[in-house]
């Protein structure tokens, strides 16, 4: 028997998905510009999402049976679709405005150190700030400051950059067999820390670096070696007894500067890799090279590189979205 599907319309584009799918994942099935940004949701980490609120959307029609709109904006990564639901993301002024507010909050304690941050060029917060951030801060109080600490011999923690998305905690819980770090304290005092100075040295701990949406967790073997847009990403694999062995090698000339998991178009790693592949295999002879990695044309990494990753954006074909985009443009003109 064919599986029952429910129909949901997001920014004027309809898609049929399995019952129980979240609005975020329904949008990802459509793809393109209408996919809400996600700073804490990570499809391969169970229970992720619901922390950062960047994925807020407006449900303008609840369902076919109960067409009333939802009274407040909802987190699309945590809200399931209903048959006949209508959702607005970038076509809603309210959503764009709320997202701007969320970004402002995320930036309250975040330092403006992109010029020296290793995550620059592949940082989700940098992209969000570029799209929604204000030029100036309205925050008058003192920012939280922390010393940089080594959590393990290969991972550096810059707590000032952390947005408390909990992804690294979930990696440690779900992918390694011994979590020794977590979020200590609550509210303004919340911070990522290890218990009693324990070192994070589990076989899969390096994945915490890949899932961190900002530059809070960085690879000690790559720090300050290069800007990511000067490197050339290449897909490669090896026969690894511990993990899938499918990685991206980041070359500068002939030298492999860094090894990471392969991220998909939503910035998520599907096959987590072990620390041996990540930190200890930095010679080309360790790998079977598959070819250049496809990079999104919107990414700074694509400068002077290879093919583009995404097909033509949905917005070019969709009238509702074109109108929404136009309104957004007019709004930003007014703000100038
Ligand atoms: S260190 Fe990175 S992954 Fe961990 S909670 Fe902070 S922002 Fe999220
Ligand atoms: S991605 Fe939905 S709340 Fe963070």
From TrEMBL:
Q: Which residues form a coiled coil?
A: none
Q: Does the keyword rRNA-binding apply?
A: no
4Fe-4S His(Cys)3-ligated-type domain ranges (all copies): 94-133
Q: Which InterPro entries match?
A: 2Fe-2S_ferredoxin-like_sf (IPR036010), 2Fe-2S_ferredoxin-type (IPR001041), NADH_UbQ_OxRdtase_ferredoxin (IPR054351), NADH_UbQ_OxRdtase_Gsu_4Fe4S-bd (IPR019574), Prok_molybdopt-oxidoreductase (IPR050123)
Matches recorded under PROSITE patterns: 2FE2S_FER_2, 4FE4S_HC3
Domain spans labelled 2Fe-2S ferredoxin-type: 4-93
Q: Which SMART domains match?
A: NADH-G_4Fe-4S_3 (SM00929)
Q: Which UniProt keywords apply?
A: 4Fe-4S, Iron, Iron-sulfur, Metal-binding
Q: Does the keyword Iron-sulfur apply?
A: yes
Domain of life, per lineage: Bacteria
| Name by which UniProt lists this protein | 2Fe-2S iron-sulfur cluster-binding protein
UniProt lineage:
Bacteria, Pseudomonadati, Bacteroidota, Sphingobacteriia, Sphingobacteriales
């Amino acid at each position: 028997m064919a599986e029952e599907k429910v129909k949901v319309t997001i920014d004027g584009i309809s898609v049929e998905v399995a019952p129980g799918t979240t609005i975020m994942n329904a949008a990802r099935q459509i793809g393109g510009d209408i996919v809400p940004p996600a700073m804490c949701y990570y499809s391969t980490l169970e229970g992720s999402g619901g922390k950062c609120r960047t994925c807020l959307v407006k449900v303008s029609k609840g369902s076919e049976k109960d067409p009333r709109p939802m009274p407040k904006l909802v987190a699309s990564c945590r809200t399931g679709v209903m048959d006949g639901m209508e959702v607005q993301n970038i076509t809603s002024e309210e959503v764009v405005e709320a997202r701007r507010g969320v970004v402002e909050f995320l930036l309250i304690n975040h330092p403006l150190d992109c010029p020296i941050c290793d995550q620059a060029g592949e940082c989700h917060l940098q992209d969000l700030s570029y799209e929604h951030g204000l030029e100036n801060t309205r925050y008058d109080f003192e920012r939280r400051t922390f010393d940089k600490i080594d959590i393990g011999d290969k991972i550096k923690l810059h707590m000032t950059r952390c947005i408390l998305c909990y992804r690294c905690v979930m990696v440690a819980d779900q992918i390694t067999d011994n979590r020794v770090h977590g979020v200590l304290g609550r509210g303004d005092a919340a911070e990522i820390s290890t218990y009693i100075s324990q070192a994070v040295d589990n076989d899969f701990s390096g994945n915490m670096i890949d899932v961190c949406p900002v530059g809070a967790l960085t690879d000690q073997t790559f720090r300050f070696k290069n800007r990511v847009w000067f490197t050339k990403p290449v897909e490669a694999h090896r026969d690894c007894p511990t993990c899938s062995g499918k990685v991206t090698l980041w070359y500068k000339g002939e030298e492999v500067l860094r090894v990471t998991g392969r991220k998909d178009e939503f910035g998520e790693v599907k096959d987590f890799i072990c620390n041996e592949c990540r930190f200890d295999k930095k010679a080309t002879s360790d790998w079977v090279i598959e070819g250049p990695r496809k990079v999104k044309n919107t990414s700074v990494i694509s400068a002077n590189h290879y093919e583009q990753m995404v097909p033509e954006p949905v917005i070019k074909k969709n009238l509702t979205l074109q109108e929404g985009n136009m309104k957004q443009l007019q709004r930003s003109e007014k703000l100038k």
